[in-house]
Amino acid sequence: MRGGLIKKFFNSYSKSINKAYDRTGALFEQAFERIEVPTERYFYQLILYVHLNPQKHGVVKDFRTYHHSSYNRLLSDRPTFLKRDSTVDLFGSREGFRNAHMLYKEDLELLKFVGNDRFETSL
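The structure corresponding to this sequence follows.
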C-alpha cells in the first residue's frame, strides 16, 4: 500500500512541475525501486548506511549535522511520525544507536583506503 502512495505522490509532483514549467516527459532520471528488508540485521545496517551517506559523499562534514536526516529526530524527545522506539530498540538504547553510527562511520573511513565501496547485504 505505502509503495503505491509514494508512486502516486511522485506522479502528481511530476505532473505539477511539468504543468508549471510548460514541459513534458519524465522528471526523474530513473524509476525508484523498492527492495525487501528481510531481516532486522539488514534494517539495522540500512539505517546506518542512510544516515552516513551524506557525509560519505561530501554533502556535509559530519552526518549528524545533515538537515534532512532522521538521525537527530530519532534521538530527540520531540514529537515525530517516525517509529522512534522500535528503531532505537534495534540498537539496544539511544547510546547504542549513537555508538553504532560512530563505529560504522569509522568503518566507512577505513574503506576509503582499501577502495571497497560496496554495501554488504548479506549480514
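The two ends are 27 Å apart (CA to CA).
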